[in-house]
Amino acid sequence: MRLAIQGLSKAFTTGTGEEIAALAGIDLTVEDGEFVCILGPSGCGKTTLLRIIAGLEAPTAGTIRADGEALAGPSRRIGMIFQEYSLLPWRTVLENVAFGLELQGTPREERLAAAGKYLDLVELSQFRNRFPYELSGGMRQRVAVARALATEPGVLLMDEPFGALDAQTRNLMQIEIQEIWRKTGKTILFVTHSVDEAVFLADRIVVLTERPGRVREIVSVRKCPIPRDRTCSDFVEIRRHVLELITAGSSD
Description:
Helix content: 25-40%
Order of helices and strands: EEEHEEEHHHHEHEHEEH
Largest sheet: 6 strands, mixed
Mean pLDDT: 93
Radius of gyration: 18 Å
Low-confidence stretches: none
Number of helices: 8
Number of strands: 10
Strand order of the largest sheet: 6-7-8-3-9-10
């Protein structure tokens, strides 16, 4: 699914009546099946941007279109994965994956079959009857990915989904989400604080300025073949350039 964002701005009013601009004039097009990462200094509005696209917050100005159709509020065409797994502890893994379909009114047999299909995709079928507390952090995040995919969204939004994982598990999850993306062909918009992670995953990296967030530059990573080698000269050069952009954004 193609996502087109035009003139998107967001301002908040504090309890004292002060207005704070979080985003200002964001223009961005994400093509169907593209993997785009969003980077920027802390507080630049990365998560706010994702929440607006997901319909969890309303923009102050601007439009969002999915395949040409205006989005206003939550949509079944948009799935979101948070850093916190948000799994229901009293439900099994299979029941957690099926939860979104249950909310949509999908019949039980149909939703459990769909949940099983996506557990196969994230290679957790053998844990279908386990509970979240019995899984590692990486496994819980894979359950969250399967739950988001089970509702068949056109766009998958991921807000620092690996931020709470240790370095080794995070690297493994990066490889796994890249494989899931390859298999499903989903459009993915992925927020991260890690330049290395963005260069490893993305087709393009959107670098935002300090608040209010604006698009400083969009960096293509396509010249690095997948699977990516973090030690190759192209990877190192792109990472250096993106770091310079973020440093510049922090000093403006």
